[in-house]
Design brief:
Strand content: over 45%
Distance between the termini: 23 Å
Helix content: 10-25%
Structural class: alpha+beta
């Protein structure tokens, strides 16, 4: 039986920058917003706080939900629901956590440079709009499989 994976991620801003985590898979480097899978019985906020500690060594406050997108593979192999939250820094020194995945870096990227990175799922346009408007309406972004 195929399952749907639920992934939560956080938008953490610092001045004119946003925090991203850098991954490598099959010799391809790309960025994601910090976050990860929700465990059975775990609520979204608890999962996201755990993921920020695991990936970035940061304690964050979870604020409002911003986006929802899906990643549905054309061959039907994977289906991921991505839920994006605004988060704010509480404490911790930014460093690669003990996630143990393909994570190779954590860094703030200038918002103006976001167009120059490979970001999965590709939500660069919506992030830019969010940074400019701070629109509080939750947006469903549809399928973002690439």
């Amino acid at each position: 039986m195929k399952t749907i994976r639920i992934r939560v991620c956080g938008i953490l801003e610092k001045e004119n920058e946003v925090l991203l985590v850098k991954h490598i898979k099959n010799n391809n480097e790309y960025y994601l917003l910090p976050g990860g899978g929700v465990d059975h019985g775990e609520d979204f906020r608890t999962a996201l706080k755990r993921e920020f500690l695991e990936e970035c060594n940061l304690d964050v406050a979870i604020e409002n939900m911003v986006f929802i997108s899906e990643g549905i593979a054309p061959n039907g192999g994977r289906h991921i629901v991505n839920i994006y939250f605004k988060v704010s820094y509480i404490s911790g020194d930014l460093q690669i956590g003990l996630d143990g995945s393909n994570l190779i870096g954590v860094e703030y990227i200038k918002k103006s440079e976001l167009e120059n990175v490979i970001l999965y799922p590709n939500t660069k346009k919506e992030l830019k709009e969010y940074f400019e408007t701070k629109d509080s309406e939750i947006k469903y972004l549809g399928n973002r499989w690439e």
